[in-house]
Amino acid sequence: MDHSADAHRTDLMTITRFVLNEQSKHAESRGDFTILLSHIVLGCKFVCSAVNKAGLAKLIGLAGETNVQGEEQKKLDVLSNEVFVKALVSSGRTCILVSEEDELAIVVEPSKRGKYCVVFDPLDGSSNIDCGVSIGTIFGIYMIKDHSEPKLEDALQPGKDMVAAGYCMYGSSCTLVLSTGSGVNGFTLDPSLGEFILTHPDIKVKKIPKKGKIYSVNEGNARNWDAPTAKYVEKCKFPKDGSSAKSLRYIGSMVADVHRTLLYGGIFLYPADKKSPNGKLRVLYEVFPMSFLMEQAGGQAFTGKERALDLVPKKIHERSPIFLGSYDDVEEIKALYAEEQKA
Fold first, then answer.
1. What local confidence, expressed as pLDDT, does residue 206 receive?
2. What integer is the mean pLDDT of 316-327?
3. The predicted structure's pLDDT at residue 3
4. What is the pTM of this model?
5. What H or E segment, with its residue span, contains residue 296?
6. What's the pLDDT tens digit per position in 177-225?
7. Where does the Fructose-1-6-bisphosphatase class 1 C-terminal domain start and stop, copy by copy (predicted)?
8. Is 49 helix (H, G, I), strand (E, B) or coil?
């Protein structure tokens, strides 16, 4: 790569320009989605700045409260949630919001209502803040038919009905990965410009191998797994077909683990187990957005029973097992669950 030439590029595809280009392909578009996305991007920039100076600004440590999931809240959790709620409400394009940090869905006041429902985890992996591991924001966007009278049911739609999903990862660089239903694109924040620049165009099948060399799972829970998960992980470590064993890579921050899986291929597993029989990851704002992105990139997402995006949640903080990644890797785990059901 010619870095010197890259440094002097003047034709930069910013995320705003990219979304405006997409908007121009739809004659009926009035720009509402573009405005909503610009507010999400602003929230990501704010949180990125806060994460970068967390230690200096005394934002590390506990806020002294627990969230609706029973998890101890970090100061940055609370700040990030406030930032995104205010950014989304002030866009004037949302009518109902679901956040990991709030027990109830937020219904936007009538004067600021729009046609979108946004589900989000403002700071996923926040238990890793103190040790500098990559963390991130995950979001999914639905369109609501009747936004004048939003109801809780409007947020309880299957993942396949999402119009867009994405995440922003705060790590060695700030990376925003987005899909509006026609492929996946990655943007990196250029701090000198304050803009997200397209750096990973069209993350699709050609770049996510049909079968990967990496598996990602918390093996500390192995004794509590069901038989198909245990068999699959055993197969990864000790393949009987003469192929090389897969490498284990597990960060413990969903955004970082899924980001690596998107770029390098392989499989990410968070199965149900004896301790968490319904799985641990939340359906609306973790499982659905990441499954949406993985399918758009040519991979698959499976719950152990069905395609993840076909799941219809009954509660806003419902949990589910999830297996997502390269197409053939997920096919293998699906086959093991099918065998188990027959038996």
1. 46
2. 97
3. 52
4. 0.91
5. helix 288-296
6. 999 999 999 999 999 999 999 999 999 754 566 789 999 999 999 999 9
7. 208-337
8. helix
Give all strands of the β-sheet with 214-216 in edge-to-edge order.
Answer: 247-248, 214-216, 267-270, 322-325, 300-302
Contact between residue 212 and residue 267 where contact means Cβ atoms under 8 Å apart: yes
Domains and CATH numbers, the chain: 5-200 (3.30.540.10), 214-342 (3.40.190.80)
Quick one: pLDDT at residue 26? 73
> Considering only CA atoms, which of 121, 118, 120 is closest in space to residue 107?
118
Give, for 107, the enclosing helix (H) or strand (E): strand 106-107
Q: For residue 33, which phi and psi values (nearest 5 degrees)?
A: -65, -40
Report d(CA 185, CA 188) in Å as an integer: 10
* Cβ atoms within 10 Å of 276's Cβ, excluding its own: 15
Whole-number Å distance between alpha carbons of 211 and 189 = 30
Tokens encoding 297: 């990139």
Let me know: does 308 contact 320? Beta carbons within 8 Å: yes
Q: Strand 214-216 vs strand 164-170: parallel, antiparallel, or unpaired?
A: unpaired
Contacts of 166 (CB under 8 A, 6+ apart): 40, 138, 139, 176, 177, 178, 179, 289, 293
The answer, yes or no, to whether residue 72 has pLDDT greater than 60, is no
Cα–Cα distance for residue pair 207/287, rounded to 1 Å: 22
Give me the numbers of helices (H) and strands (E) for the chain, helices first please.
8, 17
